[in-house]
Design brief:
- The complex is a heterodimer of chains A (about 120) and B (about 110).
- Chain A is an all-beta fold and about 120 residues long.
- Chain A has no helices and 11 strands.
- Chain B has no helices and 11 strands.
- The chains are: A mainly beta (about 120), B mainly beta (about 110).
Chain lengths: ~120, ~110
């Protein structure tokens, strides 16, 4: 059974704090992704990684950084949290390239609802 | 222009009816298409995927793909209240190695 886990379901932080969101997958997937999801805006890609120590900016990387030191773990870092970063954060993983195999898709973690006060 | 466009709804159907959800995409290089269901406060879960033109059926769900029109749809037959959720359409292209998501269509099945 595929599994993507995230370190926290709910998190409350104060403006200016450094925030770490952790994601772990046990499927030996090459790709890992961080999205944020806001009402009316859908899923927006923050960063993704296709290999250890590799990272690519997504659509909204400003104010975020990422770290991938091990294949199974992908961390999202908010260097100095701001109220406009209050959101649902979703981690996902997938194989390197999606083929016609039914298992080749993107699997999501349960999400972290972050509130920045 | 967004890569994947969906009508945000809300869409309401009575229990037992057919719900029809639609999606268009802009990248002709997109090869794979996915439908995810997302309950309120939960993460998306895959319910259907389709690669070839035509229809693909899985239980009460049918996905339809028309590459010429760049159109993907999801039909839910015999809709149940438990089908009430937001449905996300997604595309994937090997060239970008990224998934592109629509903003989702909210479906409510009325008992």
């Amino acid at each position: 059974d595929v599994k993507v886990t995230q370190s926290s379901r709910y998190l409350v932080k104060r403006t200016g704090e450094k925030v770490f969101l952790e994601c772990v997958q046990d499927m030996d997937h090459e790709n890992m992704f961080w999205y944020r999801q806001d009402p009316g805006l859908g899923l927006r890609l923050i960063y993704f990684s296709y290999d250890v120590k590799m990272k690519e900016k997504g659509d909204i990387p400003e104010g975020y950084s990422v770290s991938r030191e091990k294949k199974e773990r992908f961390s999202l870092i908010l260097e100095s949290a701001s109220t406009n970063q209050t959101s649902m954060y979703l981690c996902a993983s997938s194989t390197l390239t999606v083929t016609r195999d039914s298992t080749d898709t993107q699997y999501f973690g349960p999400g972290t609802r972050l509130t920045v006060l | 222009q967004k890569e994947v466009e969906q009508n945000s709804g809300p869409l309401s159907v009575p229990e037992g009816a057919i719900a029809s959800l639609n999606c268009t995409y802009s990248d002709r290089g997109s090869q794979s298409f996915f439908w995810y269901r997302q309950y309120s406060g939960k993460s998306p879960e895959l319910i259907m995927f389709i690669y070839s033109n035509g229809d693909k059926e899985d239980g009460r769900f049918t996905a339809q793909l028309n590459k010429a029109s760049q159109y993907v749809s999801l039909l839910i037959r015999d809709s149940q209240p438990s089908d009430s959720a937001t449905y996300l359409c997604a595309s994937y292209s090997n060239t970008g190695n990224q998934f592109y998501f629509g903003t989702g269509t909210s479906l409510t099945v009325i008992p």
